[in-house]
Structure prediction request, 92 residues.
Amino acid sequence: MKITITFQHLAETDALKTHATERISKLQKFLNKPMTAQVTLSVEGLKHVAYVKITSGSAHFQVSESTEDMYSSIDLATDKLERQMRSPHPRR
Prediction:
């Protein structure tokens, strides 16, 4: 499992990095092959945006969520990814 986190227009903090890593790493249990995740955390005006792209073998998932709080954006994005992965017809 490889998780890359990029910060755009906000300061990189260990707390945000840890939160995102912990939430994303829990998604591995829904996948058959090791995953690679690219996480981009950015601030656009008043919105805190979490964009996540996951690849595992031939499966690909990507979501974007924005709220007024980065932690909420990360949580909503990982919840949406989990729903996609649990779906009987995941995107490939």
